[in-house]
Amino acid sequence: MVSDCTPTVDKYNQELVRHGTASFPLACHSGDLSKKDVPWHWHEELEAAVVIKGSAAVTIGSKTYIIGEGDGFFVNSGALHDCRRIDQNDCIFRSVVFHPRLVGGSLESVFYQKYVLPVTENRAVEGMFLQSAIPWQKDAMEEISTSWTACAQEHVGYELTAREALGRFLDIMRRHMPAVEARPDAREVRNWERIKQMLQFIHRRYGEEISTGAIAQSASVSESECLRCFRSTIGTTPIQYLREYRVGQAVRLLGNTNARIADIAAECGFQDVSYFTKTFREMTGVTPKAYRSVIRSGGEKEL
């Protein structure tokens, strides 16, 4: 089964959706960035994807990769990441998200110790850009595609096919990933710990009135340090991120509920409906009412 890749996250920015089932913790997703970007989130599972049309900007931790058709990316367990289109053209990618135990089994098994831990415990690699022009990376992406197709088609024995492909994928990754750094950059680690705390605060309190000072206080830093941390890690200001997150939540509610637009505005932190409409149109190109109309008519609106 293939599902949409837009994540729902909890107050810690961790994705809430379980990928697959407890007995088969693997899911394949199809992302279309012409509809909406994939916002900042993280999950315990590993993720690997291939772009099949267009190009996207994928940020994993502190690094941004421009990924074109035929190339892909890998996201390690626990790494914050987002995915955005870079132009007005379509961008479609296919991803597999899987728990390490799918391949490794128990923590004591040789599979977990030899093939999983060298990847998940390599904190030098939060993620990686995969290029089809590099033979070993092309091989890795072929395994991603094999696993994705198996899950999408669900033929008899597809679980074995998908698991075997991901086992080969992790083996390729562990053999080619850079060595673990003895000591990660302390400043960068501190920045990401702070940004996680501040994003947690925003995701928990976005429906309330929030100031830069309140966001800074959530991580016990000054307002100037809060601004610097946001700019250096995710490339925006805390208030702009808050506005984008609020609009993203409004998009979800407009498409999935029958709530009045005024109520959605209030729930997402916009006390003034006119300001909500203005902000929504600035970010999406349409009014909330027009967006809901397009969704209910079965059409697609590029956001």
Folded structure, characterized:
There is one protein chain. This protein has 303 residues and is an alpha+beta fold. The chain folds into 2 domains: 2-176, Regulatory protein AraC (Jelly Rolls, Sandwich), CATH 2.60.120.280; 186-296, Homeodomain-like (Arc Repressor Mutant, subunit A, Orthogonal Bundle). The protein contains 11 helices and 10 strands. The strands form 2 sheets. A 6-stranded mixed sheet has the order 1-2-9-4-7-10. It has a 4-stranded antiparallel sheet with strand order 3-8-5-6, with no helix packed on it. A hairpin with a 2-residue loop joins strand 5 (55-60) and strand 6. Helix 2 (110-120) crosses helix 4, helix 5 packs across helix 7 (223-233) and helix 6 packs across helix 7. It is globular and about 55 Å long. Residues 7-19 have low confidence and may be disordered.
Key attributes of the depicted protein:
303 residues, 6-stranded mixed β-sheet, Jelly Rolls, alpha+beta, single chain
- Counting DSSP E segments of at least 2 residues, the number of strands comes to 10
Percentage of residues in DSSP E strands: 15-25%
Corresponding CATH superfamily of the largest domain: Regulatory protein AraC
Biggest pleated sheet: 6 strands, mixed
**Span of the ends, CA to CA:** 25 Å
Radius of gyration: 20 Å
**Helical content band:** 40-55%
Principal-axes geometry comes out as globular
Total domain count:
2
The class by helix and strand makeup works out as: alpha+beta
Strands side by side in the biggest sheet: 1-2-9-4-7-10
CATH fold assignment of the largest domain: Jelly Rolls
